[in-house]
Design goal:
Number of helices: 16
Helix content: 40-55%
Distance between the termini: 31 Å
Radius of gyration: 24 Å
CATH architecture of the largest domain: Alpha/alpha barrel
Order of helices and strands: HHHHHEEHHHHHHHHHHEEH
CATH class of the largest domain: Mainly Alpha
Number of domains: 2
CATH topology of the largest domain: Glycosyltransferase
Structural class: mainly alpha
Number of strands: 4
Strand content: under 5%
């Protein structure tokens, strides 16, 4: 994402804008009167230091040797070309893909230049046109959606569901990244590739979250059949554990927090540090595969999660909104690894989830909770996906007969559509996921389907088996 943007920052191209469209009405002050566009207002002492350094570099920028600048741009072009990723695009995500298109344009490449054609096509593929509207997706999520849906289908357990999951597993197996050493290897050069990406094709940037979800699904479905894929995925996950015991999404030890104070990092999400939700997914995977509490990777991740628990009893959700998502993720992992329900960490989390149930029986949390000082686990309405997360988290520790779970189940059943083209599904208009907290929020169209289905199926399975809790990793 940053490499093509650095070229754009160097060239400083201006939009052609033939129709002279402006956005002046969005500014509190007329834009021509704004002298300081720096919006990174962190409280760190590093902030003014970086600002001063930025001012100095801006002064000397016109005097930079042209040869050095050309060399740097050529290096950036080579970096992008290696990772262009065909029609799936650089990083398979819109900001990076759009930056590539604009980079080629700013450098004067013809519209028919092959790499520019491919980059443009990648962006076009994200555009959804409907009868009365059109929008551009930030990315697609087929591996993530398929992995999660596989878990929901396995929870159902019917012959049709198992057959569908078998087809999904065969498809997923083909997409495991086994031969491309991605950028993660800069810090883990001795680790073999073995993960899964989020999208159809993004071999340079597989992620730990998807990998753990797919491994757990394959293990549940047919562990002997998928043994090799499971072992390679597990090897990669273990190799990407950070020194603090947690896991980030794409990298290890990406904890250079001082970089969040540079002027460019005004969105506060420049890094990919370990997070509770991804760590829980990886821990849950290890637990489901039979790793024990005394294993070094497990012990380190448990210590990390204990440290990361919020004072209210919940956990932060980096990739789903927000503390409901994080708390669901962690509770499932803690149960799978054998932490008892009387552990103070668990009791605090369960009490917190119970305290956030809404009057209608559901749970709901909006993106405001990512801002400091805002309530955690609260929102304007209940949503099906977040209600399912809360129920799954509570059931992980045997709360299946609790008032909270019963009320949550009634909410899901009462809000399920009973007619029309969405019969059997749920409506969910609110955003329940996040790309960059405070900046970039997401709505997964599948969440309103497979998470409620997952919760209902697990409730039914536990009731039918007279079991009090599940032992799966999620």
């Amino acid at each position: 994402m940053i490499v093509p943007l650095l070229v754009l920052m160097t060239l400083k191209p201006q939009a052609v804008n033939p129709k002279k469209i402006t956005l002046d009405e969005l500014f509190v002050a007329p834009p021509e009167t704004v002298k300081d566009w720096n919006s990174n207002e962190t409280k760190s002492i590093l902030n003014p230091i970086f600002r001063a350094l930025d001012d100095v570099l801006r002064f000397f920028e016109p005097y930079m040797p042209k040869g050095l600048r050309k060399y740097s741009i050529d290096k950036a072009l080579a970096f992008v070309k290696e990772r262009l990723n065909g029609e799936d695009g650089l990083g398979a995500i819109y900001p990076a893909m759009a930056n590539v298109v604009m980079m080629y344009d700013a450098l004067g490449y013809d519209k028919n230049y092959p790499d520019r054609v491919i980059a443009t096509k990648a962006v076009d593929n994200l555009v959804i046109e409907e009868k009365t509207s059109a929008y551009c997706q930030p990315c697609v999520s087929p591996i993530w959606d398929t992995g999660l849906m596989a878990h929901a289908m396995l929870e159902d357990g019917s012959p049709d569901a198992i057959a569908a999951t078998q087809r999904a597993a065969e498809w997923l197996k083909k997409l495991q990244v086994l031969d491309v050493v991605g950028d993660w290897a800069n810090w883990r050069p001795n680790v073999r590739p073995g993960g899964w990406a989020f999208q159809y094709n993004n071999a340079h940037y597989p992620d730990l979250d998807d990998t753990a979800v797919v491994v757990m699904a394959m293990d549940r479905l047919d562990s002997p059949k998928y043994r090799e894929a499971i072992e390679r995925g597990t090897e990669w996950v273990l190799g990407l554990q950070s020194k603090n015991g947690g896991w980030g999404a794409f990298d290890a030890d990406n904890t250079y927090y001082y970089l969040n104070h540079i002027p460019f990092a005004d969105h506060g999400a420049l890094l990919d540090p370990p997070s509770a939700d991804v760590t829980a997914r990886c821990l849950g995977m290890l637990a489901q595969l039979g790793y024990k509490i005394d294993h070094p990777a497990v012990a380190a991740s448990l210590a990390y999660l204990r440290r990361e628990q919020e004072k209210e009893g919940c956990w932060f959700g980096r990739w789903g909104t927000n503390y409901i998502y994080g708390t669901w993720s962690v509770l499932n992992a803690l149960n799978a690894i054998g932490i008892g329900k009387n552990d103070l960490m668990v009791r605090r989390a369960i009490n917190w989830l119970n305290s956030k149930q809404r009057e209608d029986g559901g749970w709901g949390e909006d993106g405001q909770s990512y801002f400091a000082g805002e309530p955690k686990g609260e929102g304007k309405v209940s949503t099906p996906a977040q209600t399912a997360w809360a129920i799954l988290g509570l059931m992980a520790f045997g709360e299946i007969d609790s008032d909270a779970v019963n009320k949550g189940m009634k909410y899901l059943l009462s809000t399920q559509q009973t007619e029309g083209k969405n019969e059997g599904l749920w409506n969910e208009d609110y955003y329940t996921a996040v790309g960059f907290p405070k900046v970039f929020y997401l709505r997964y169209h599948g969440y309103k389907a497979f998470f409620p289905q997952w919760a209902l199926a697990r409730y039914k399975a536990l009731k039918n088996s007279n079991a009090s809790q599940t032992m799966f990793g999620m």
